[in-house]
Amino acid sequence: MPTLLSTPPFTARGPEVHGHRGCRGLRPENTLGAFLHALSLGVDVIELDVVISADRQVVVSHEPWLNSQICLDPNGERICSNDREQFNIYQMSYVEIRRCDCGLLRHPGFPEQVSSPAYKPLLSEALATLEAASQQLEHPPLGYSVEIKSSPEGDNIFHPEPAEFLSLVLAELSAAQVLARTTLLSFDVRILQLAHQLQPNLATCLLVEENLPWSSSIDNLGFTPTTFGPDFHSVTEKAVRALRTDFPGLRLVPWTVNEPADMQRLLALGVDGMTTDYPDRLLSILSREVW
């Protein structure tokens, strides 16, 4: 495994703006178009999800199957919602995956989304595209939040087991020379525990959605990660105060915060950043220039 030199340099401009799946509210999720648009707006961090193809390519995708809401099949036809097994990305070659459009169908939950033809890119292509565009725009060093989508139930069905999954992802991040600006996210504690064991300096984020006390979730992990990522609905003044007391220095970046009123409330509670489908809204509230 490669050795990290440092943890990500975080912005001094205030709470970080994390573009969720690029900017899902504005462009098709986890596509090059979404990432480039988020970059052009001026986000601090690009958040994206990764899965593995049958030929062991690291693919940018939230689900390890083709989502019938937003993807067409390799022949350009609509997908039946119960065809997860038929369009299991872990059983498809990347050549076949790339033939599937995942940008023409606007996500029904995001009416502002501008649809356009798009495919699921490889992580390597997404990083290379963003690094080149960032340099061209003279953007401050861009951070990456890379979520590994795995679960014990999905092992060897929708993805490889944690050791192989992690190895494939770290190899791509290392090759792109972005490890020092990357935070590894997961709901799967096995991934984070293994990452911490192999790369103690790697920035990690524990994602949680259950109603356990935050301290219990972190204790169950077995080490204190760099960042804690709860569902924003669970972020209260009491919870934040307890987190700051029990885990000083732990960064708090809740997800997925889309409404301006919720953004304002969380800013008042002193969060370190927010993951949002609408980075333009958060940037406006923070009075930062939208590029």
Query: Roughly what percent helix?
Result: 25-40%
Beta strand count: 9
The overall number of domains is: 1
CATH structural architecture:
Alpha-Beta Barrel
Unreliable runs, pLDDT <50, ≥5 residues? 1-11
**Shape, per Cα inertia axes:** globular
Give average pLDDT, whole number: 93
**N-to-C order of helices and strands:** EHEEHHEHEHEHEHEHEH
The CATH H-level homologous superfamily: Phosphatidylinositol (PI) phosphodiesterase
Distance between the termini: 37 Å
SS-derived structural category: alpha/beta
CATH class: Alpha Beta
CATH topology: TIM Barrel
Radius of gyration: 18 Å
Which properties best describe this structure?
PLC-like_Pdiesterase_TIM-brl, TIM Barrel, GP_PDE_dom, alpha/beta, nine-stranded mixed sheet, phosphoric diester hydrolase activity, disordered N terminus, 291 residues, 9 helices
Describe the protein.
The structure is a single chain. This protein has about 290 residues and is an alpha/beta fold. It has a single domain (about 15-65, about 120-285), classed as TIM Barrel. It contains 9 helices and 9 strands. The protein has helices at about 30-40, 95-100, 125-135, 160-175, 190-200, 215-220, 235-245, 260-270, 280-285, and strands spanning about 15-20, 45-50, 60, 145-150, 180-185, 205-210, 225-230, 250, 275. It is globular. The N and C termini lie far apart (about 35 Å). About 45% of the residues are buried. Pfam families: GDPD. InterPro entries: GP_PDE_dom, PLC-like_Pdiesterase_TIM-brl.
